Amino acid sequence: MTQTVGKRPAEEMAQVKLNVKWGKETYSDVEVDTSQSPLVFKSQLFALTGVPPDRQKVMIKGALLKDDDWGKAVPKDGMSIMLMGSAEVVPVEAPKNIPKFVEDLPESEQEHIETKRFGSGLHNLGNTCYMNSTIQCMFAVQPLREALYTKASGAGGDLTGRLVTATAELFKALETGGAPLPPYAFLMALRAKFPQFGQQVQGVYAQQDAEECWTNVMYAMREKVKDDDGSPVVDKLFGIRTRLSLKSDEATESFTEDGMSYTLKVNIEEKTAHVSEGVALGLKEERERNSSALGRTVVFRGAMTLTSLPPYLTLQMMRFFFRRDNSQKAKILKKIPFSIEFDAFEFCSDELKKELEAPRAAHKEAQDREMEAKKLAKKGPGPSTAAAAAPAPAAGSSGADVDMKDAGEASTSAPATSSTSKKTMTGKYELVGVVTHKGRTADSGHYVAWVKQPSDGTWVCFDDDKLTIRTEEEVLQLSGGGDWHMAYLLLYRAIMVDMPEATAPAAATGGASDAVVQSVAAAAMETESSPAV
């Protein structure tokens, strides 16, 4: 469904004010847009009263209001309506362990039985596709979910704390899978904390920028979700540490500046042919600054380098820009190809490159061994093949038979020279999530999430409440060049390799704690060990 903010006919813009009576409470002048579905109105009542929509009974003109159609119950301006329902928690009996068959399930559950293992879709509550796609991509980061579940309970009752708590609760609900969920509580908390997401145009909630939603939710979690050492979890998972080095052409002055961000910008110019070229452009910078030598303002030019890599790397395609001639945010439709694997090595500082050399060499050796094992497997068993495939016994080994599981793990890991190994980043990343935008302007169009499932490597398209299985080839076609969905945010997960703990470089873990690194590595191994659909 394409969502466009623009002028609508008068008959579609029925904006009325109602008086809502709920028990002893009366809410006056509640604004209702009858061009939206009744479900949106019920979400307003939920924000006012705390009565969940599934427990609401709304009486208008003697009729019970449905979720998807006003029917004959379209209210008139100034009308009084009655709301029935309890905001208190309703006790639920523990479910009995009774076997259920597909044909015995309600039709609504049967519809989602094939995609239940991938999670749930999210209802669009009125131009909220930007939020739904952002949430689905964040949900794909398993270490983030784990941190939220353990830390969100202490987030507090302020606006930031309520948003973090709502995020954790929504993530838990998504894990159950099945029928789509209406993200009322999260949406209300998001708009309360960041009012710009509640902006309306002619009485209709406006389309918003998915990257702005991503970044603002990140900053909310940064404030409230801390690791055991007191540092923000999102910094350890997504934080890209950089060093900006600028020099003046007119004077001999130069300066450096350290910083951190949650995304790498992919600038798009006429000659940009690949996402890596866009990243290189995004790292360049020029800045006007006062020169103490010349006593005036001069231009300093240079570029940023990456001094530390995160376990999860987010790239933002800079497709939107402001046009002064018509005062609108236009979109660059140019095709910018991207790959399933992204190598950040060329953008790293010299110090970080040096630390990544050993892990990258170990990773290449592991890949070579895996390729050789596949070649030997194709040849089939034989005296010469078996002799070549048999690994030399490690020092101190008992010579006993090696379990097949151990053999599989050995083919994808660096050879251990110590009893203790450590997962270390290589500077290489694999694609696990994409947020796409379809449309020609930032203030209109439609956002969709494409997520690689950690359970089996399947790519799933989350189009609001609809889930569709996709292929890797289809994901790579989201590079732009037309009116179809094109990548806006790219989420990559670090490719790690086992290194002896004594020799593993500290900076090559991205500044993340051992627990975070192991969690990321576990998610990657889970995907690799499962066959893709």
Automatic annotation (TrEMBL):
Matches recorded under InterPro entries: Papain-like_cys_pep_sf, Peptidase_C19_UCH, Ubiquitin-like_dom, Ubiquitin-like_domsf, Ubiquitin_CS, UBP14-like, USP, USP_CS
Comp. bias regions, Basic and acidic residues: 359-375
Top-level taxon: Eukaryota
Gene Ontology annotations of biological process type: proteasome-mediated ubiquitin-dependent protein catabolic process; protein deubiquitination; regulation of proteasomal protein catabolic process
Pfam families documented for this protein: ubiquitin (PF00240), UCH (PF00443)
Domain USP, residue spans: 120-495
Span list, region Disordered: 359-422
Keyword Hydrolase in record: yes
Gene Ontology terms for molecular function: cysteine-type deubiquitinase activity; proteasome binding
Start-end of Low complexity biased regions: 380-400, 410-422
Alphabetical list of SUPFAM superfamilies matching this protein: Cysteine proteinases, Ubiquitin-like
Catalytic activity: Thiol-dependent hydrolysis of ester, thioester, amide, peptide and isopeptide bonds formed by the C-terminal Gly of ubiquitin (a 76-residue protein attached to proteins as an intracellular targeting signal)
Keywords (A to Z) from UniProt: Hydrolase, Protease, Thiol protease, Ubl conjugation pathway
Record EC number: 3.4.19.12
Positions of the Ubiquitin-like domain: 16-68
Summary of the function given for this chain in its UniProt record: Recognizes and hydrolyzes the peptide bond at the C-terminal Gly of ubiquitin. Involved in the processing of poly-ubiquitin precursors as well as that of ubiquitinated proteins.
PANTHER family assigned: UBIQUITIN CARBOXYL-TERMINAL HYDROLASE (PTHR43982), UBIQUITIN CARBOXYL-TERMINAL HYDROLASE 14 (PTHR43982:SF1)
Sequence similarity: Belongs to the peptidase C19 family.
Name of protein: Ubiquitin carboxyl-terminal hydrolase
Organism per entry: Volvox africanus
